[in-house]
């Protein structure tokens, strides 16, 4: 019951479309503290490192989701971990919430200032600090984005493969446990962070694996690195990340294949994985999504359940991967297998996949999109996708489906009119049904977008009250004043 | 200073070779509580589930390390998570330490009852509960060993690849964040546990990813799974683990190659990884180790720095992996490249590698062995191995080297006479120097054996006092009475 209420409250903000306020302390009550804090901030960062401007604050109070909340009271722009620490100490002294901000490309309202407070924009901390090509690792500051890193790495023969679509900051990706299209081969952020520098709520600076350390494996004490990966800014501010790198594959081949049914596409996925094919990407798009992509990107793929695939390896190993995969898909009734070997046609293909969000939005101009994010065991995918498509049809909702099918993770890109309260309510109820369907099949309500604002009630259903109590205990230990991104996750 | 003292205290136990006592509460003080607890235990498990016998207790107070400590006061043999929970509640009520015990194959003294208390032997919980071949996952009780699982899986085309050498229990492997020879390709326990059932110190049962859930990826709240993986029984008793499985490769090829120098062997490793060869195992053995293996296993490998390699894949992909690897090793002066394609010669080769421990012991009959476990960035391996060999020679110590070179992790198998206090002291000082050498090169003192009793002081040096404080805070939150495997890790 409480769960349902919380959920509705979250969505009512969407409906209202304006700033809201959650929590015990009002803005007025903290404004005196805020004034004193702002002077102290200026002493740390200089005047240019502190902004009270409405436009800047608005811009730092939202991400790419439909969640809308009040902007922070002030935005600070630290240039180093030392400045982050000094600023955090000031916030701690004045009991002001701290909300870390990377690029604002999150999808679950993780940067909204639900209790007001101070947004720490990390965009000025954008140095790539330590590249060790022979050790396959690099250390970056939190403002470095995925594309900036890969562009920096271009001549080294190495790359960082985790790709959530958006050009997110790498520490933001770590904070939400992001993954994306390459996870089936290269893992998520959980598997690719070796060490983190973290500023805790009281300004203490820790290194989760020890300062400057970068062994590829360790069993030295509790795994603090993976406690902060996925903590969505609620346990500390990530100020440095040491990441695993990979050799750029000698050759890359992509392919598209249409199937008679969802089941046939998923069966092909399982068989490709069972055959030990180290597929780099295996993405599912349903008929509605393909149709939208065709329209948006001027393509002409058959309108049917479809797999987009990518293989990485040497020229010779690719031949074999391709041959086995063609066998598998043919055996499952796959047709129109189209290979893209040259960079141009590969880029066109993956551009279409990456533009799925915009293609979905283009189905109903003027509308907003919200992406669901359930993840289930592979064998349950056909059932949940079929039931979900029926649910969409029954409720007259637009929700093309795209998914990282190799991981059992898929998104319904819900296109809705935020000014139509009835539709907003129907979408809300649909997403709750979808999440519960995933939970009943042994899955999760959030494969890679995190919990943020909107999935706190579902998280409790997913994990049970006792595991949530453990998480609350961890939060209280690391952030006893509840200053770190309050109102998120738990 | 405190660090050095702790370290010496640990080793003094080795020297004394007898039971010792650490902590504030003496055995006498808890014996009344113990008596009442034992009656309560019997009500839970029946008489056969509780043992006070000296031999059973002795057997459950030690692992395969040189650390010797007092045995537990009593050993209980629960048959279910419900029984573990009921027993934990009794311990909690009477403030008795709880020490989880799998197979006793640990290498850092993790099962010693340093404060007395109750050993929870999990050997009677050995059911394989849920196998989902199409989802590549399985759920096991804590007494199931690695070999038992793989034997159960034999006809499914799947296997669990993490292989620390010993036939350890899978939950014990999770508890110490074990890895071993296959980690370079398949990851460690950190990457291969999807969900854990855990009984906390007060008997509460939680599921780290939610009861019955097994999505291949998730971003649902804090990563509790990886907080318990590697916690060495100090945060809770693992009573179920859901594990990732992999397809058994179509073909396997092994190889041995000798090199003129350590540098040449490591350079070959880096180049193989850079070339994107998905090598399954790449193990380094130094000249002393090879010589010991030759003697012990009746082999005749050239006495030189050597790589043992294994490749998994399809027949065709193996041809290519083999060809590229031969190129790489030849370019680095590798000679005598010997391929083992048939199962018989492969088994002989890897048997020699797995027998390294016994081969080392056979160098000095009647002695004991202690394995160091540092892990450094790949590029630092040649330097640390060369310096370490010089150190061994300078101090007249026997320490053949075997290592998981693809991860930068290697072991000196120190063979020592436990009754020679001078040698024990020299080995102790050597292992501290080696650990500090690894720390100074950006590495860790423990790649896969955990912290246990012996590396607590080094852990503090490695992570710094602030990260240790965070870990202590987490421990105090989950186990406020310090009952879970006290005296370990922190």
Question: What does this 3D model show about the protein?
Answer:
2 copies of one chain form a homodimer. With 490 residues, chain A is of the alpha+beta class. The first copy, chain A, folds into 3 domains: 14-121, Uridine Diphospho-n-acetylenolpyruvylglucosamine Reductase, domain 2; 128-246, Uridine Diphospho-n-acetylenolpyruvylglucosamine Reductase, domain 3 (2-Layer Sandwich), CATH 3.30.465.10; 251-440, Vanillyl-alcohol Oxidase, Chain A, domain 3 (3-Layer(aba) Sandwich). In chain A, 40% of the residues lie in helices and 18% in strands. Chain A contains 18 helices and 18 strands. Chain A has helices spanning 2-16, 27-45, 54-59, 81-94, 146-153, 170-176, 183-186, 189-192, 224-228, 262-274, 287-297, 315-331, 343-354, 356-362, 381-394, 421-440, 456-463, 465-478; strands at 50-51, 74-76, 98-101, 118-121, 128-132, 137-140, 158-159, 193-199, 205-207, 237-244, 246-247, 251-258, 279-285, 306-313, 335-340, 368-371, 401-404, 409-416. In chain A, the strands form 4 sheets. Chain A has a 7-stranded antiparallel sheet, with helices on both faces. In chain A, a hairpin with a 4-residue loop joins strand 17 (401-404) and strand 18 (409-416). In chain A, helix 1 (2-16) packs antiparallel against helix 17 and helix 15 packs antiparallel against helix 16 (421-440). The longest helix of chain A has 20 residues, at 421-440. The first copy, chain A, is globular and about 70 Å long. Residues 1-29 of chain A have low confidence and may be disordered. The interface between A and B is large, with 97 and 97 residues.
